[in-house]
TrEMBL record:
<dbReference type="InterPro" id="IPR034686">
    <property type="entry name" value="Terpene_cyclase-like_2"/>
</dbReference>
<keyword id="KW-0456">Lyase</keyword>
<keyword id="KW-0460">Magnesium</keyword>
<comment type="similarity">
    <text>Belongs to the terpene synthase family.</text>
</comment>
<dbReference type="InterPro" id="IPR008949">
    <property type="entry name" value="Isoprenoid_synthase_dom_sf"/>
</dbReference>
<dbReference type="Pfam" id="PF19086">
    <property type="entry name" value="Terpene_syn_C_2"/>
</dbReference>
<keyword id="KW-0479">Metal-binding</keyword>
<protein>
    <recommendedName>
        <fullName>Terpene synthase</fullName>
        <ecNumber>4.2.3.-</ecNumber>
    </recommendedName>
</protein>
Length: 360
């Protein structure tokens, strides 16, 4: 990780440009121990191997970087959903038996979503009860508006996964614009960033959270994290023959180019979004209320922390061990963006509105 670039099956992945602050919750290890106990007792893991792989996502470390100021119990509840999401993704979405059966996945997704929305809902799937326990925790400390926002974000995520599974079942590789719109949903970024209010206790007024500029900033943070995750997981996907719909395979088709050229194009696209985020953030932040400031800081922490976590988590690098937290200081970052062209990304009209000069 200290080298200027990572080599993946003959392909160089450049260092990440990420000009955002780094932080981590001071009691992350204590909260993680509580999370591991919950995973053991939750019933959502079908085997010891599955339980160990879920624990190895180190989701407490992940979200402790998004919300370093969170109360311990709030951080725990948020981290539990992240563990749950990774376990559900592995067993039911990504490579599980439903990963190419859209009708069966949609039936399950409907049950899971209703369990997220209603504590009285019932379902036989082992993930239902665990999810209800997590959302019950949210209801115990957060106002109904925030829990409702999370539930809507959860539905958005499942809809994106259904879209992706439908593509897989049909053997369809989406074009760039469709892929970016799908990835905003299927990456799980909507519910992950919706956890920011739940974890920090910030209560951003609707008039601020739903401003077009704030919505654009949220979507940009989601996409940056999603594209970074495509890079983090590329080695695992190539080694396991799982590389199907990611930004690199999409660009290889879109541009009729080899993987190395797709990596270069993807890096440039991602860096242009980062630059637009910085530009728009600096326009919004000076007049933001205190809770919105906390939320915007969480977006920045999240993009940085997602990389600090993703560059060393066994889920992606399959190293078999979790490096010491001091390894954060050894990560190499790009000093400047690889592409500084202004204006919307070419061939991506679904996200072009982020560059609207009148956003406010």
């Amino acid at each position: 990780m200290g080298s200027p670039a990572s080599r993946v099956s003959g392909v160089e992945l450049p260092p990440v440009y990420c000009p955002f602050e780094s932080a981590i919750h001071p009691r992350v290890r204590q909260v993680e121990k509580r999370a591991v106990e919950w995973i053991r007792d939750s019933g959502m893991c079908a085997s010891e191997r599955e339980r160990a792989w879920t624990v190895a996502t180190h989701s407490t470390d992940f979200f402790a970087r998004f919300a370093p100021v969170a109360d311990d119990d709030r951080l725990l509840a948020a981290a539990l959903w992240v563990y749950w999401g990774f376990a559900f993704d592995d067993a039911r979405c990504d490579t599980g038996p439903l990963s190419s059966r859209p009708s069966e996945f949609n039936a399950l997704a409907g049950q899971v979503q209703r369990a997220c929305e209603a504590d009285s809902a019932r379902g036989s799937d082992r993930f239902v009860g665990a999810l209800q326990d997590i959302v019950r925790r949210f209801r115990g400390f957060a106002p109904p508006t925030q829990v409702s926002r999370f539930a809507h974000a959860h539905r958005a995520w499942l809809s994106g996964v259904a879209w992706q599974i439908g593509n897989q079942a049909a053997g369809r590789m989406p074009g760039l614009d469709d892929f970016l719109a799908m990835r905003l949903l299927s990456s799980g970024g909507e519910p992950t960033f919706a956890l920011l209010e739940l974890a920090t206790g910030a209560q951003v007024p609707d008039r601020e959270l739903h401003r077009p500029a704030v919505r654009a900033l949220t979507e940009m943070a989601i996409l940056v994290a999603a594209l970074d995750n495509d890079g983090h997981s590329l080695h695992k996907e190539l080694a396991g023959g799982e590389a199907d719909q990611n930004v690199y395979t999409v660009l290889m088709q879109e541009l009729s180019c080899p993987l190395q050229d797709a990596v270069r194009a993807a890096t440039g696209l991602r860096d242009r979004v980062v630059l637009r985020f910085v530009q728009l953030h600096d326009r919004v932040a000076p007049t933001a209320g205190s809770d919105l400031v906390t939320y915007l800081q969480g977006l920045r922490y999240g993009m940085r922390g997602n990389n600090e976590w993703g560059l060393r988590v066994p889920r992606y690098i399959r190293s078999g061990y979790w490096p010491d937290e001091m390894d954060d200081t050894l990560l190499t970052w790009a000093d400047k963006p690889s592409d500084t062209r202004p204006g919307p990304v070419e061939g991506a009209p679904s996200i072009a509105w982020w560059w609207d000069p009148d956003l406010a």
